[in-house]
Amino acid sequence: MKVILETVTPLFLGGADPRGEPELRAASIRGALRFWLRALLGGVIGDRDLDALRKAESAVFGSTDAGASPVLVRIRNLSGGAPTPFSAIASGRQGLTYLFFAMGTQNKPERKAIPAGSSFELELRPRAGAQDRNTLPKVYAALWLLTHLGGLGARSRRGAGSLQVTRVQGDAPNSALPSLEIRASAPEQLQTELQEGLSKLRKSVGESASVDCPSRFDVLHPNACKIWVVGKVFSSWREALDAIGQRMQQFRNRREPDYQNVKNAVQGQRLTQPVERAAFGLPIVFYYRSLKGAKETLVLEGKRHNRRASPLLIHVTRLSNRKYALVLTFFQAQLLEEGEKLKLKLKRQGVSECVSTPDLSLIDDFIQEVRRNIGPCLEVTGW
After folding, report:
1. Cα-flanking dihedrals φ and ψ of residue 325, to 5°?
2. 292-311 burial, b if ≥16 CB within 10 A, otherwise e?
3. In this structure, what are the phi and psi dihedrals at residue 379, rounded to the nearest 5 degrees?
4. pLDDT score, position 352
5. Quick check: pTM over 0.90?
6. What is the three-class DSSP state of 225?
7. Which 8-state DSSP code applies to residue 306?
8. Of 207, 231, 237, 242, nearest to 221 (Cα)?
9. Which end of the chain is more exposed for a tag (fewer CB within 10 A), N or C?
10. Is the pLDDT confidence value at 340 over 70?
């Protein structure tokens, strides 16, 4: 099976040099597909039997123990404009600058992206001699999830690297699977399309397991994952991401009680409560320019893990009428491993302060902020 994919938003995907020319590789596609298959299988196997999950995942994408994947993933014929630097992408757009800020870090060369509107061919086919006919439908399911909810490359959870299938060459490996192409022309129709597609995918891989909330990892299960379509249509992907980027920046900027809580730690006091902003991912860098006449820099991260991807994914969908909509996916998973605390490092003073992790309720508060200031959030339910 072959599909034609298009970049709906700029794709920041580096090669050996992350800040060199962007490079689209089959290995990156395979890694993204693997993430979405794991999330899908987690809703069937559950989030506790990790050995069974690894076995099921390896049967599709391979491992050192299981051997090579029975499915080949190949990319051909990338076409589009010249790589676009971060400064040109975010120029004049405060929200875009906020969402993609790491692509233009000071004192380092700015990142370049494969521009929106570029297209390439993705081929999925069984490896010669492969016996398991159930693997290709699972890869198809992962591709549906990647192109309807996720993204590829750096800042993909902040809206970069949103992909969309524009043409399918060949039949789906299973007639019960949903179409890869977007047919909706309005947010309400997209809400229905996602609900029906998710229901079909989950039925295709087995009966639903019991999953706790928060789950141990990102699991595609109604108990541990919420999905919304923002009920507003945008004229461009830039307008869509700029709108939610500005709202996120305003929501998080100098937010209490975090602002004063962390500031107190700089001044020698103890952190009095968890830092709520950690719910959006780690690490977080805090700046206090007002203290002691100089900028004070602090980094918040896990005590054992310095990075944690945001549990909130922003995806841009181009509707069938060439307008754009936002899809928000909230994985209600543990922020860090059980018992792990947050560590606030005070760079200049060379000391650190530890505090418990917060819950993820701040994400729900942000969704309410989107409802009030951008448009209704149409929850995808019944899947």
Report:
1. -135, 155
2. eeeebebbbbbbeeeebeeb
3. -75, 135
4. 76
5. yes
6. strand
7. S
8. 207
9. N
10. yes
Cα 55 off chain centre by: 24
Q: What are phi and psi of 148, to 5 degrees?
A: -110, -25
How far apart CA 253 and CA 239 sit, in angstroms, is 21
The amino acid sitting at 248 is: M
Q: Please state, in angstroms and rounded to a whole number, the distance separating the CA atoms of residues 138 and 124.
A: 11
d(CA 142, CA 204): 12
Query: Which residues make Cβ contacts (< 8 Å) with residue 21, sequence separation at least 6?
Result: 15, 83, 112
Residue 294, pLDDT score: 47
> 334: closest CA among 373, 287, 279, 293?
279
Q: What is the mean pLDDT of the chain?
A: 92
At 248 the three-state DSSP class reads: helix
Residue by residue, DSSP assigns 113-140 as: EBPTT-EEEEEEEEPTT---TTHHHHHH
| DSSP state letters, 278-290 | GGG-B-EEEEETT
CB atoms within 10 A of CB 270: 10
CB atoms within 10 A of CB 380: 24
Residue 353 token pair? 């302060």
In angstroms and rounded to an integer, the radius of gyration of the C-alpha atoms of the chain is 21
Q: Chain-centre distance of CA 302, in angstroms? A: 20
- The strand pairing partners of 315, in sequence order, are 327
Peptide bond into 283 cis (omega under 30): yes
In terms of residues, how long is the chain?
383
Query: Mean pLDDT, to the nearest integer, of 238-244?
Result: 98
Which amino acid, 53? L
Q: Round to whole Å and give the CA distance between 153 and 103.
A: 11
Question: Measured between alpha carbons, how far is residue 43 from residues 134, 203, 204, 220, 233 in Å?
Answer: 18, 11, 12, 5, 31
